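How it folds:
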Amino acid sequence: MTHDARWRRFVIALALWCLAVAGLIASCSAAQAAPQALASVAASTASPAPTIVATPSATVQPTLMPRTRPARIDGLPVVFVDELPREAQQTLALIRQGGPFPYRQDGTIFQNRERRLPIKPRGYYREYTVRTPGERDRGARRLVIGNGGEIYYTADHYESFVRVIKR
């Protein structure tokens, strides 16, 4: 079978699958929402896309479920931004707006000497202090931001990190 023929078969199969999903969504009504059928269709997909479920209303409309958390990224545990301490979320907001930062060391190069983050060229990572209530100095909490937008958080001064993702 040629490449073009395989491609055509794939496109046809994908179109049929999309029609089947659209038919399931259209056939659901408020009185008999069928989340089991939709969940089984969603479970048969290989991608980690959000699950579509039926919502009870006069006209059934798909809604997106919260993104599921991968167990690890870059070999590190993963947390959502909204699971970080409030002070870390405030520091992220400061980073997004470009400051001003409370400590002169904020925004300086993080050298990754401990090699706990993926190895990147010098200057790839920047570090920012996360205020710790009750601490007189900078404390141990930091956010480290990669040039590619990666966010890492440490609560123990670089002994361990978690990878932070948006929900």
Summary: The CA atoms of residues 27 and 33 lie 9 Å apart.
